[in-house]
Amino acid sequence: MADPIDFSTPDPSVRELLATHPDLSLDAHDGLLFEQVPLETIAHHVGTPCWVMSSGTLRKRAARLLGAMEAAGLSVSAHFAVKANDHLAVLRILSECELGADVVSGGELLRARKVGIPASKIVFSGVGKTDVELRLALEERIAQINVESVEELEIISALASGMDREINIVLRVNPDVDAKTHAKITTGVAGNKFGIPYDEALPLYRRARELPGVKAVGYAVHIGSQILTVAPYRAAYARIAELVRATRAEGLAVSVVDCGGGLGICYRDEGEGSPDAWAGAIRAELGDLDVRLAIEPGRWIAAPAGVLLASVVLRKAVTGGASFLVLNAAMNDLLRPSLYDAWHGIVPLSARDAMGKPEVVSVVGPVCESGDTFAQARLLPHLQRGAHVAILDTGAYGAVMSSTYNARPLAAEVLVDGHTWSVIRPRQTVEELWGNERFPDGSEEAA
Ligand SMILES: *Cc1c(COP(=O)(O)O)cnc(C)c1O
């Protein structure tokens, strides 16, 4: 697997981006197609900004990942990380691909249940699950809660006993392995808020076996996101294997290891994380432990299955510098470039635009923040006011992170499937935006 982005290489051309995105293609007449659907058709009928997800890409990638695990001889239950894309239509497609759900809130748990994902395929992660959320998990009898602290373990035990329930728990361990990804998406080094420090895991496992209402069944690890090399996985899993052996040496049973998610994709030219290499790391380090294995993929499945369509509002010339291309999509729609300096491919929808003469531009949104920048000094074909573009790889951590900052309604969402397409969320209206706001009537009085 390749190293993270090397910005000394030139920006990939449209042709190079299409080569790494097999479900996108450029037709001389219809322009950019997602599966068989011309994206210009969607931009024309639905308007922009507009998210477009591909059912086919979701299905293929889910199958590819599960296939890699199977080919490595692993029996793995896969739980889609719902936070990557929680749209009901997306969750239903993935549940039809036999994926369960990894949820981090009560809302995500209910979304998973809403599309019929059985509770027995739901795991619940996160550092701050509230009592209300934990009671919901207990009532639903989900497969397992991934516990992140001693404090949380005690709260779960008390709640479960009070409800006369017993729930499977696994301890999420912080293996202190640096996934060498962006600081804001690294989760497995000592000192960040996630997981139980490695040395405290076994004592806590012992303690869990004594507490009522909880059944300690194993360990979980999730070291971060957009991981492209196999080394951090191997290092983390080796530490977990060591922990499983140490736990069993005390006569305590361990039947589950949850390997987390984090496999990366090719946004620019970094190459994508290989499911086969990931499966190989799991097999090499955990394959002979005789445990039930789980994975929690999010980005790898969903990111390449989505694009964000936008229009060029205007070109703003800058004396002596790169012109600004101002889009009608912004950081409130797609936050990743502002939040993580993320690089996303940008491809014109019209074939003629895509063939245009390249120039260096900065691509920005209209929101009143300097951080509202999609691309700085990017080599793109020359685009005029009104041109349409697709921002690639926005199917994960895209629409789910949108806000309505600057009173910008949430963008429409469309799903393509073969040669058909459907609106799966109409564009929010400004009236809906303020629909729940009230003027004060002074009707409540402080006691
Ligand atoms: C976010 C998250 C995932 C998914 O990460 P991806 O990088 O999207 O694969 C899996 N497990 C946990 C606990 C997470 O927080």
Automatic annotation (TrEMBL):
<comment type="pathway">
    <text>Amino-acid biosynthesis; L-lysine biosynthesis via DAP pathway; L-lysine from DL-2,6-diaminopimelate: step 1/1.</text>
</comment>
<feature type="binding site">
    <location>
        <position position="340"/>
    </location>
    <ligand>
        <name>substrate</name>
    </ligand>
</feature>
<comment type="function">
    <text>Specifically catalyzes the decarboxylation of meso-diaminopimelate (meso-DAP) to L-lysine.</text>
</comment>
<feature type="binding site">
    <location>
        <position position="262"/>
    </location>
    <ligand>
        <name>pyridoxal 5'-phosphate</name>
    </ligand>
</feature>
<comment type="subunit">
    <text>Homodimer.</text>
</comment>
<comment type="similarity">
    <text>Belongs to the Orn/Lys/Arg decarboxylase class-II family. LysA subfamily.</text>
</comment>
<dbReference type="InterPro" id="IPR022657">
    <property type="entry name" value="De-COase2_CS"/>
</dbReference>
<dbReference type="InterPro" id="IPR022653">
    <property type="entry name" value="De-COase2_pyr-phos_BS"/>
</dbReference>
<dbReference type="Pfam" id="PF02784">
    <property type="entry name" value="Orn_Arg_deC_N"/>
</dbReference>
<feature type="binding site">
    <location>
        <begin position="296"/>
        <end position="299"/>
    </location>
    <ligand>
        <name>pyridoxal 5'-phosphate</name>
    </ligand>
</feature>
<keyword id="KW-0663">Pyridoxal phosphate</keyword>
<keyword id="KW-0028">Amino-acid biosynthesis</keyword>
<keyword id="KW-0456">Lyase</keyword>
<dbReference type="InterPro" id="IPR022644">
    <property type="entry name" value="De-COase2_N"/>
</dbReference>
<dbReference type="InterPro" id="IPR029066">
    <property type="entry name" value="PLP-binding_barrel"/>
</dbReference>
<feature type="domain" description="Orn/DAP/Arg decarboxylase 2 N-terminal">
    <location>
        <begin position="69"/>
        <end position="303"/>
    </location>
</feature>
<feature type="active site" description="Proton donor">
    <location>
        <position position="368"/>
    </location>
</feature>
<dbReference type="InterPro" id="IPR009006">
    <property type="entry name" value="Ala_racemase/Decarboxylase_C"/>
</dbReference>
<keyword id="KW-0457">Lysine biosynthesis</keyword>
<feature type="binding site">
    <location>
        <position position="369"/>
    </location>
    <ligand>
        <name>substrate</name>
    </ligand>
</feature>
<dbReference type="GO" id="GO:0030170">
    <property type="term" value="F:pyridoxal phosphate binding"/>
</dbReference>
<feature type="binding site">
    <location>
        <position position="397"/>
    </location>
    <ligand>
        <name>pyridoxal 5'-phosphate</name>
    </ligand>
</feature>
<dbReference type="InterPro" id="IPR000183">
    <property type="entry name" value="Orn/DAP/Arg_de-COase"/>
</dbReference>
<feature type="modified residue" description="N6-(pyridoxal phosphate)lysine">
    <location>
        <position position="83"/>
    </location>
</feature>
<protein>
    <recommendedName>
        <fullName>Diaminopimelate decarboxylase</fullName>
        <ecNumber>4.1.1.20</ecNumber>
    </recommendedName>
</protein>
<dbReference type="InterPro" id="IPR002986">
    <property type="entry name" value="DAP_deCOOHase_LysA"/>
</dbReference>
<dbReference type="GO" id="GO:0009089">
    <property type="term" value="P:lysine biosynthetic process via diaminopimelate"/>
</dbReference>
<feature type="binding site">
    <location>
        <position position="336"/>
    </location>
    <ligand>
        <name>substrate</name>
    </ligand>
</feature>
<feature type="binding site">
    <location>
        <position position="299"/>
    </location>
    <ligand>
        <name>substrate</name>
    </ligand>
</feature>
<feature type="binding site">
    <location>
        <position position="397"/>
    </location>
    <ligand>
        <name>substrate</name>
    </ligand>
</feature>
<keyword id="KW-0210">Decarboxylase</keyword>
<dbReference type="GO" id="GO:0008836">
    <property type="term" value="F:diaminopimelate decarboxylase activity"/>
</dbReference>
